[in-house]
Specification:
two-stranded parallel ribbon; single chain; two-stranded antiparallel ribbon; 10 helices; mainly alpha
């Protein structure tokens, strides 16, 4: 599964608060020697891997799960709108490989790259839709985590989505259907490391939770199942506008996703 998520943050009113609150959690949970440049990775915290290894007595499951919920509380407390998109690799790899076969038959990573680009564009169109509905007088810029293999392609995709590249006539109807061109997202993508743009750590938590829930809502009483439900109870209300606007948030059963209205 490939899941991409974004957090819509008001730069003047919320960015510094997020930075401060994530920083406070780093100060509370992480020894001083490890704090410079530290990043909370939701996957590592949940599974007890890498820095948060489950065999380390400093990181018992209860403490790790409590940390995840405190990170999620920032999203709830600041009422941060969320956008997300998810692609099932098993379904989309076949379609993507068919689409790129005529260009290259020896690049399996291209299929994943196309899915990443598609999920990123879905998030962009949804963020643009949120701005149109709830903050029509505001414009927005995009900050994306540094390092994706499809970096240049995502950048070009945003340029096309903003109407800065010609669109073939045969794609005109599709462009309208997915609410393009973007009207409120300006400029190019700005790439940043997670330590330098701490809201990205909340986007990481959102993508992790969304991806896990997209595979099926946990119903058991094991601690990892309970915390996933608790995380979703916090995150889902910040996505509810997507449901109300009939914005599809999971493509697990839809072979031809659109970007919503």
């Amino acid at each position: 599964m490939i899941c991409v998520a974004g957090v819509i943050v008001h730069g003047d009113r919320q960015w510094t608060e997020i930075d401060s609150r994530v920083g406070a959690l780093i100060d509370e949970y992480i020894p001083e020697r490890d704090r410079p440049g530290f990043v909370f990775h939701a996957t590592d915290i949940f599974h007890g891997s890498r820095y948060f290894h489950r065999d380390n007595p400093e990181w018992p499951q209860e403490r790790r799960f409590g940390l995840l919920l405190r990170l999620a509380a920032i999203i709830k407390d600041l009422n941060l709108p969320l956008v997300a998109a998810c692609y099932d690799k098993a379904k989309w790899a076949v379609r993507a490989n068919e689409a790129i076969e005529e260009f290259s038959s020896d690049r399996p990573d291209l299929a994943l790259g196309l899915m990443h680009i598609g999920a990123a564009l879905d998030c962009l169109t949804r963020a643009d839709s949120w701005l149109a509905k709830f903050s029509p007088d505001e414009l927005a810029a995009v900050v994306h985590e540094e390092g994706p293999k499809a970096k240049q392609q995502i950048k070009l995709a945003l340029r096309a989505a903003r109407g800065r590249l010609p669109v073939p006539p045969e794609f005109a109807d599709t462009q309208k259907r997915v609410s393009l061109p973007l009207k409120r997202i300006i400029d190019t993508i700005h790439w940043a490391e997670k330590p330098d743009a701490r809201p990205l750590q909340l986007a990481d938590l959102t993508a992790f939770t969304f991806c896990r829930i997209a595979k099926g809502m946990p119903t058991g009483d094991q601690p990892h199942e309970v915390v996933l439900r608790q995380l979703w109870e916090i995150i889902q209300p910040q996505m509810v506008w997507m449901f109300e606007a009939k914005q599809p948030i999971s493509y697990l059963n839809d072979p031809e996703p659109d970007g919503g209205e």
